[in-house]
Structures are given as C-alpha cells and as structure tokens.
Design brief:
Blueprint lengths: L1 E4 L10 E4 L9 E11 L1 H7 L16 E9 L11 E5 L8 E5 L3 E3 L6 H4 L5 H12 L7 E4 L5 H12 L3 E6 L5 H6 L4 E4 L5 H8 L5 E6 L3 H7 L3 E9 L13 H5 L3 E2 L4 H7 L1 H16 L7 E6 L3 H9 L6 E5 L2
Helix pairs in contact: 3-4, 9-10
C-alpha cells in the first residue's frame, strides 16, 4: 500500500512516498481504510526530531485521520467492518490504511464528512480538554488564546464561543484578525505589533484574564503569567516558539491562580473511557453544527511535505487535510 515515509529526523523535505506492507491490528486495535488525514504542527515536529518522543525509523507520520473500518481486533468490540470512524494515533495516518486503538477512535455521525472529521480529535479535543476538563471554564469568563488562527487555537476560539466565554484572540499578523472574529473572538490582539500588557489591561478593565490558553510559550507565556486575574488559570498547551519559558512562582502565589498543564495525548492514554466520551461529544457537536472546523486546503497524499512546510511557516489558518481516497 502507498504511504508517506519518514526515514530520518531531518524534516518535511526528506519525506518520500513509497510502498509498505499493510499493518495488522492487535487485539485492541482496528484497521482503517484512510480517506482523509490532517496535518498538524505535532506531525512536523515528529519528522524533524523536535517532539518529546521519537518513533523508531522509518515510520509513517500522521496523528489524526478518518475512514472506514475494514477489520477489528478481538477486544475492539465497539467497532465493526464498515463503520465510518475518526481516530488519533501517534503515527500512521499518511497511508492508504492505518491501525488505531479502539479506545482512541470514534464512530462518525452519518452526515459528517471525512475531511472535517479528520480535523476534530486533536484540535477540538485539546481545546475541550483544556477549557472543560482542566480549566472548568464558566460562562462569561474571559479567555485569552494565543496562536488563535492555527489549528488548536482556532478550535479553542470556536469552542470558547460555544461555551459562552468572552474570547480574546492573540494573533501574529493583522491578516488573521477577520478569521478569528468570524469564529467568535470579541477582541483581537496582534502581539507582534501591540503591547500585550496594555491591551489586556484595557480589555479587562485592569482585572486580567480568567483563563490563559497558550500554544506558543516563550516570551508570550511569560507576559501572560503577569496578566492572570485573581483565581485564574494559566494553561501551557505547547511551545511552538521553540522556547520553554520560566515563570516566577510569586506570580501565581500573589493572585492565587493555578498553572494547569494540558497534555491531551497522555490523558487519553491514562483515562481512555473519559477520552472516548469526550470524542463522542465532539462528533455530536460537529454533526449539530455547534463547532465548525476550518480546512485551509485539501492536498493529495504526495504533497504531505509541502503541507508540513506550510504548517511550519505559519501560513495555515486552521488545518490542511490530505485526501487519500
């Protein structure tokens, strides 16, 4: 079968389309005819050797996909051949067929397209886990979301709107402002050209933000740490800047706020039943039109490297999807 292969941790330029043997599902896994796979920043980090884990080489990238079940392991009894599903996995999505754990897969409502379904579990899963499970966000609270036009950030804007939060979107260029406003942001801050502290103070009447949802790290998170309201929650989601920040611990002490880590993949591994329930909830929100995944473009499988370069260059708004069938 056709698959994109990563044979060295040297980045998207060295990915190659090749032929590999079809994977065999273990007892707790399902085998899927892949119709669509999304391209994430995590995928780009994995093939570049910059993620916190390194799969054995060679491997097939692709952490999220959708398609049709063709075989099931003995323990994956909630699925059957012919089921339309979306799934998440550390690797394997950029191929004609992939395996995924039954616990990390979800059945699709009939009217949900494969392309949209392939963009939900990571993006909206991260946003849901952060805002609902970790932050316990309450209607009317103010959330500041960095990287708000990217895949995870835009999902957080969209879900924040649905939850009744006051969404302040942080972007790195003015051309992204219209998009995040259309997804529910009431205020937009360009942190490359505006003073973040002054804008947050002005927007919140000096109170600060209730929830900080940060995907960037570095200096942005260090500034956010000084802008949290009393009893607020500061959540590091990722470090796309490449810099892991240091935060003086007197800051959360003085305002009794919490720093809450958000690592969806680790939680889903430890609490598979809860994660499966969340995935069902997300797919129902999608089917009902309450969330609107943004697909930047759809590309063929052989253009996976180009898709990853676009993600790395921050020229993607939402997600790129690889159409495989």
């Amino acid at each position: 079968m056709k698959a994109v292969l990563c044979s060295s941790f040297t980045g998207p330029a060295d990915l190659r389309l090749g032929e590999i043997a079809e994977p065999k599902p273990a007892s707790d896994e399902i085998l899927i005819d892949v119709h669509a796979a999304s391209v994430s920043f995590m995928d780009q980090l994995l093939v570049s050797g910059l993620y916190q884990m390194r799969p054995p080489l060679p491997f097939v990238p692709g952490t999220e996909a959708s398609g049709v079940v063709v075989a099931v392991g003995d323990e994956a009894t909630t699925f059957a051949p012919g089921d339309r599903v979306a799934c998440s996995s550390w690797t394997g999505g950029y191929a004609e067929r992939m395996i995924a754990k039954g616990s990390k897969s979800v059945r699709l409502p009939d009217d949900v397209a494969f392309e949209a379904a392939a963009t939900v579990l990571h993006n909206y899963g991260t946003a849901y886990y952060a805002l609902v499970e970790r932050a316990r966000a309450q209607r009317g609270e103010t959330v500041f979301i960095t990287g708000a036009a990217g895949g995870v950030g835009l999902a957080a804007v969209d879900l924040g709107r649905h939850l009744g939060l006051r969404v302040v979107a942080g972007v790195g260029s003015d051309d992204k402002a219209a998009l995040v406003r259309s997804y529910g942001a009431s205020e937009v801050i360009n942190y490359r050209s505006e003073d973040l502290r002054d804008r947050i103070k002005s927007i919140t009447s000096g109170q600060g933000i209730d929830i900080g949802f940060d995907t960037i790290g570095g200096a942005i998170l260090e500034q956010m740490a000084r802008l949290i309201n009393w009893g607020g929650r500061l959540m590091p989601i990722g470090f796309t800047s490449g810099v892991i920040p240091s935060i003086p611990m007197n800051l959360p002490l003085l305002k009794n706020y919490a720093i809450i880590g958000v690592f969806l993949g680790a939680w889903a591994e430890k609490f598979s039943a809860e994660a499966a329930h969340m995935n069902d909830t997300l797919m129902q929100l999608l089917a009902d039109g309450h969330i609107r995944p943004r697909i930047d473009r759809v590309l063929p499988l052989e253009e996976a490297g180009e898709a990853m370069r676009a993600v790395a260059n921050r020229s993607v708004q939402g997600r790129i999807v690889l159409k495989i069938r």
